[in-house]
Hints:
Strand 2 and strand 3 (61-64) form a beta hairpin. The radius of gyration is 13 Å and the shape is globular. By secondary structure, it is α+β, with helices and mostly antiparallel strands. The protein has helices spanning 23-40, 67-77, 86-94; strands spanning 44-48, 51-55, 61-64. The chain is built from three helices and three strands; from the N terminus they run αβββαα. A three-stranded antiparallel beta sheet has the order 1-2-3. The chain starts with 22 loop residues before the first helix and ends with a helix. The protein has one domain (19-94).
Amino acid sequence: MCGFCGSFSERHWSAAPVSGARPTLARLNVAQIAGRLTAAGGVRLVAWGDRFQLTGRTGRTALAANLSEIWQATDRLGKAIDPLDEALLDRLEAGA
């Protein structure tokens, strides 16, 4: 099944929009924040339709519907990261 056809499914809890926010804007915010983390693993993340598109350094791509799938795809396409790693979060916050 192609990524587009696979997009017609139940929404994951992490994909639910914030109350009062537009879903597209919420997805763009998630992509911006999570993209900083995936970049540490060598993976580029962008909002794509109602999903997220991840691209590794070799050009391989994957689609993710929610945060859980983002971390799994990052592990497959790049270097495994722990999104709860305090040292990583501190480095990103410091701009490193």
